[in-house]
Amino acid sequence: DGGITQSPKYLFRKEGQNVTLSCEQNLNHDAMYWYRQDPGQGLRLIYYSQIVNDFQKGDIAEGYSVSREKKESFPLTVTSAQKNPTAFYLCASSMQGGSYNEQFFGPGTRLTVL
Amino acid sequence: SQKIEQNSEALNIQEGKTATLTCNYTNYSPAYLQWYRQDPGRGPVFLLLIRENEKEKRKERLKVTFDTTLKQSLFHITASQPADSATYLCAPEVGYGGATNKLIFGTGTLLAVQP
User: How many CB atoms lie within 10 A of CB B30?
Assistant: First the structure.
């Protein structure tokens, strides 16, 4: 089955802790993205990567970090510097970067800070 | 800055009718616009992409229009079914051309089709 997976589905974190969200795709896509979705707001871009070992900040990158060491994997770390991390996090991939390519989304990870 | 507006109120329609959802954008001119469907607690699913030189695009019961003068896209579902109930997201592109373009997502419109 080709697709994009995220784990875990639900994640709870104590204040002050870093936490890493996993995102894996077996679609052989070059580009990968991380979005955050809050109630009543659209998806907001955190980071994106168009190729292995390269990534760019999106609109709300503060308090987050990423790596892209393998084509299939794009983990997101939510650091303690992120002031309001409770949200629904979505990972996506596309064949190449650029908005003329459809994005394939994972099932999401719901992060709650206790 | 770029702004995307979709109907914030839910759209309730009767099964079999045509649903029409609106997406307005301001302060820029996207070359492409995508529409996605999102079910509760799940990731969005791509539906259609329309380019600025295409006035209309169809896929089965779905139709999208793109009016660059009005800065508006309309999304139609004909012969709607209860299974069409979901949130529909509009996503115009923004960027500088080529591979650096990104999507800006609207907040979405919740469609509820009553049997």
Answer: 25
